[in-house]
Amino acid sequence: MQQPWWLYLLAVFWIRLDSKLVGQAFQPEFAEPLSNLTVPIGRDAIFRCLVQNLGGYRVGWVKADTKAIQAIHVHVITNNHRVSVSHNGQTVWNLHIRNVQEEDRGQYMCQINTDPMKSQMGYLDVVIPPDFISEETSGDVMVHEGGTVRVSCRARGQPEPRVMWRREDGSDLVIRHTNGTKTKVSIYEEAVLAFNKISRSEMGAYLCIASNGIPPSVSKRIVIKVHFHPVIQVPNQLVGAPLGTDVTLECYVESSPKSIVYWVRDSNEMVISSEKYEVLNTMLSPFESRMTLSIRRLEKIDLGGYRCIAKNSLGEVDSNIRLYEIPGQDRLKSLSTEQNKEDYKYSTPLEGPDNQFGSADTSDDEDERETSTDVFNKMLITASNDTANKTLHLTRSNAISKLNLSNKVKKITNKFDITYQNNACKNYNVQLILILSFVLKSVLYL
52 near 27, Cβ under 8 Å? Predict the structure, then answer.
């Protein structure tokens, strides 16, 4: 049996009414706000939009600042191949941006095509690690001592990087202010580092470091070279050593650029390393060095002058060292013995027919002569030792009291003892010669 037409109209009415009531009761809503994202450049970003009761509505994505549609439901609209969408059922809707670039920074909108439209927005911040601007960053520089130099170090990044300087060796930087004052700092925070009246101590490597909290930080090494004429300092220009020993001569050189250094003798003969000589040059700092010349088993032929020479592109300088012999212990003993023998030869009693001494009738005088001779020899020995040791230790009064000298000899020696005591600051050798001369005359003419 055919249904009446009005039944169809009634069914359509109820269906439309039901869907309207259902739509009003279950409108789509956002389950949570769209989060803001901060993503380093080159990484991936994902916006997640949570929707409840989506029903037959659609979710779309729009870049708000440019009003460019990114995607509608499951279809990508933009021509950016790095953009894609995904979803999990009817609730989770995702916008993917791969390999984020600076142009991706901005507001993104998730919207539902209800009437009126519902939407929410999140911000994508693209952060960039610091990087140096090559055309605004200095390289290694060279300046003459006393000159002015400026080195710059500029970096870009998001957020704006902070630039600071420090010395590679860890020492302080000397900052000279316009009012003439100086400040020592371990770190200097400016894009430009300036040196006025630069000195050799400020030569070296400097590190420029840029950071903005986004890893990694970057650094650049800039070397400042200060050129100056070579200078030589010699600790000892007179060096003495006993024969047969080893001796070392040394010079300290400051120069930049680095100098050629070498040794020559008075004859202008260059000294090179061999079994006899050892030539070394040790760097103490970028501009300081210590040059040494070691001479093994010193001989007479090695004595004399030596010159240390330093030469660079700005000039040449040299300094002289004189090497002389000083007696060793064996040499001192030998000199003392030889002097004693030589002096004794001229201090013995006269012999032969003209000798007026040695008679039994003058035995007292002979004792006096022998005693005086002993005193004379002892004084000569002491004088010889004084020449070697530069010190005279002679107590004449005690020695004379122990000897059986004649009254005449005692008077003479006592007289010169008083003179010796009153003139203690005079040259001992001169007094000794005078004393010996008078004693000898008194002995010969008694």
Answer: no
